[in-house]
Amino acid sequence: MAAHTTSDKRSVEDRSLESVSIRFVGDSGDGMQLTGGQFTNTSALFGNDISTFPDFPAEIRAPRGTTYGVSGFQVQFSSRDIHTPGDVVNAMVVMNPAAFKTNISDVEPGGIVIVNEDEFTKNNFKKCGYEEGYNPLEDERILHTYKIIPVPMSRLTRESLAGSGIGAKDVDRCRNMFALGIVYWLYDRTIDTTVKYLNDFFGETKQKPEIAAINVKALKAGYYFGETAELFPVRYHVAPAKLRKGRYRKISGNEATSLGFVTAAAKAGKQLIYSGYPITPASELIHHLSRLKNYNVITFQAEDEIAAVCAAIGASFAGAFTITGTSGPGLALKSEAIGLAVMYELPLVIIDVQRAGPATGMPTKTEQADLLQSMYGRPSEAPVVIVAPRSPADCFDMAIEAFRLAVRAMCPVIFLSDGYIANGAEPWLLPNLDDIEPIIVDHPTESNNPDGPYLPYLRDPETLARPWAVPGTPGLEHRIGGLEKEDGTGNVSYDPDNHDHMIRTRAAKIQKLADVIPLLEVLGPESGDVLLLGWGGTYGAITTAGNHLREAGHGVSTAHLRYLNPFPRNLGDVLNNFQTVIIPELNSGQLRTLIRDRYLVDAIGINKVRGKGYLIDDLMKETLAIMER
Predict the structure, then answer these.
(1) CATH hierarchy code of domain 522-627
(2) What is the DSSP pairing of strand 234-238 with strand 248-252?
(3) Residue 273 — φ and ψ, nearest 5°?
(4) Mean pLDDT per segment of 10 residues, for the chain of length 629 residues?
(5) Where are the chain's structural domains?
């Protein structure tokens, strides 16, 4: 291996790695999300494939130094195609004992743990629940298991910024940049991207050049400390990935969702209106969309979830493209109004960024447990379309698809994202917008009934959708409301046969969408022993596990559903081509229930409800255990 000689003339081994998973952890005030985000941006610009997982504390501000306030950010960067932030942590930066205690078990044996030893004090040990007299940095089991590298980050940061004239509180906030500088040196990353960010954000945007200056100085101090301190005998290098040609940017799921909906509205020549109420982890949607007003976007923060969805329905009635965003508890509150939109037969998209429940549950943790609520969680027979992106970048495509289907069938669509997808990030190949098909919207301007009043529920024979007449169009005045409609006229009807007909018609137009949605694709053999079938944010773990199992000689294929109502029209054939169907889900078996009901396939579940995604290794082991039964 080649040797790298530093300025102090010592020899440091250069070692090439295919991929590395790093986690930054500390108190929620330690800036771990910023630190991880900057390392991610730098690695993305370098050309690595990336996958991230920010892990936020649920409390707005837990007592400092407690385990409840630990914030983390994990990123895997690689020279090959990856789909997850990594099963195990190869290196971890730890800012306090609470972060150490809650995260050390995720580090691989022999992994690097860089510790801010200044925070490992008796008082902080007590805050996070360590026994009196115990110091994890002196525990022989830990020292033999991991490469513990204590660094007095707090002291070194203060020393590097001595004489800056900045207060101690602001100086201490720069510790994360000192830590980032060390990691940049250790993994052969440039600091230039972060220097530019700090100067742009603090110097120009915030008009605080003195804050930019001390952060840049701390970053450089950390970098040069890594180079000269003789704590690291090895420096690691991860080459750029061979991605598909084109321009890329890092994108999170919530960002991609927002851009997708803006693009959909633009492709239809419509105004986009977002109506929502703040709820984790969907709140970022209104933040992103509020910055895009120049693209004919209106954002409205309502007083509650019910008001938000009702405002969206009203805007849809007026002819706009409308979305309302929430998470599981908010979806429950919106259920009656979603039923109203089903009765109105208007295009409306409801975004549910799922989180761990029930009730408030674990609001910053991920789960996939709103599928049955989305399918059935409304009074009576009130079917809606359900789509689910499989990754952060896929949110863009599925957002466009959600509106395309909503307009085609004139019905509500539930867009099932989840916390893992929404907060995670990956490289996104920028699309050619000219390649995205327009969304055709036809607002009638003339009556469809030459022999009498306009018929607002006269249906398109191909789609069974009713016309979308904009209020105020002369001659197209019509009745609207929650009472059952007479077929064709839209008049209030209590006729039993008409009610039965309308219930079946509203369901039939949803199922007719199966004619236009893509067929389900299978990775691996199209028939055989085992099919791993998933949906939503489990895509990365399922796909990677399937690839590894096939490489090991096992007959395992994978498929991932992005359309959950209706299902792809070939799903039954795909299921019947395999002896065993295994469905991993972050719930107790909701897709499995639907598959068993619809296709009479005795699917086997691998179910986790821990607020975390799957580990690839665990998924492989459980799959093999099922195969050996």
Answers:
(1) 3.40.50.920
(2) unpaired
(3) -120, 125
(4) 41 92 96 96 94 91 92 96 95 98 97 97 96 96 97 97 93 97 97 96 90 97 95 94 87 98 98 97 97 97 98 97 98 98 98 96 95 97 98 98 98 97 95 96 95 95 97 93 95 97 98 98 97 97 97 97 98 98 98 98 97 95 95
(5) 3-238, 249-435, 442-517, 522-627
